[in-house]
Specification:
4-stranded mixed sheet, 8 strands, 3 domains, Translation Initiation Factor IF3, alpha/beta, SP0561-like, 30% helix
Length: 277
């Protein structure tokens, strides 16, 4: 256990990132593993530095089907912190596998299985987003994963997708994503589409531009990492952000990328990313 007044002064809360919790004491990973064996992947530091940054304790509790307050209490107890008046850990919540489905039954279903990717420690986000981009207006994405991908709900929710999940086994989940317009089709109003920023240069032979200013975390980081997976040596990816993406920089360094940050404009931050020499 980590000693010292600063490491133990503040109790863990449900909104804390799992990465921040484990940074306080790596042995806390065993608290997560007790509730859901697939959290054992967090023992791998490389996996932890990417995935644990994207998940809060509350989302981890949902994935493990346990109450968030119970998981928080166990983490604080492991740190030697007593939270006055906190309720005792509760029994795991059993998933209701008999609940009737609500996603459109008559729509075309596109299946995507990322269970092997997750078990092998590969990040499946680029495959998922590529499949999402290829969906027709009335298609349903059926995603198979080894846990309930709670961070993805917010990412796709920003794109107008509803979701429904069902647990088949401890490490086997089905999640369906669809646009609510499938249930109540409404013609899209082209006038409501976001205006194109004419101030962003078009991609050229050496540079790709990625505008993430209107996205909420963790999507800017996830989209950037997905784009970098296929970035050729010698080419530059320019991320256009509303702020300096401090959490992105350690991940870039771990993956062998260099970057320069341009804060010369008041309405955007440019991060030029390329393979380190």
């Amino acid at each position: 256990m980590i000693d010292g007044p600063h490491s133990q002064a503040r109790p863990v809360t449900a909104s804390d990132r799992v990465s921040d919790v484990l940074a306080r004491d790596e042995s806390l990973v065993e608290v997560f593993v007790r509730h859901a064996p697939h959290f054992g992947k967090l023992r791998n530091r490389a996996m932890r530095k990417v995935m644990a940054r994207l998940v809060t304790v509350e989302q981890a509790a949902r994935t493990a089907n346990v109450p968030a307050d119970g998981l928080v209490n166990e983490l604080n107890a492991a740190l030697g912190l007593a939270v006055h008046g906190a309720p005792a850990p509760s029994e795991p919540v059993q998933a209701d596998v008999e609940t009737s489905l609500v996603h459109p039954a008559s729509a075309t279903v596109i299946d995507l299985d990322v269970r092997d990717d997750l078990r092998s420690g590969r990040e499946p986000f680029s495959r998922i987003m590529s499949t999402v981009s290829s969906l027709g207006a009335h298609d349903v994405l059926h995603l198979r994963a080894i846990f309930e991908p709670a961070p993805l709900f917010a990412v796709l929710g920003k794109r107008g997708f509803a979701h429904e999940s069902r647990q088949h086994a401890a490490d086997d989940w089905s999640v369906w994503f669809w646009r609510p317009a499938v249930l109540d089709p409404v013609a899209e109003d082209p006038g409501e589409r976001p205006a194109v920023d004419d101030d962003i240069p078009a991609d050229d032979a050496t540079t790709t531009y990625l505008d993430v200013r209107d996205l909420d975390p963790p999507e800017p980081m996830m989209r950037t990492l997905a784009a970098l997976e296929t970035l050729p040596v010698g080419r530059t990816l320019v991320q256009i952000n509303a702020r300096v993406p401090q959490f992105l920089f350690p991940v870039l360094a771990e993956r062998g990328f260099a970057w320069e940050t341009d804060e010369s404009r008041s309405d955007r931050v440019l991060v030029r990313i390329h393979h380190a020499e």
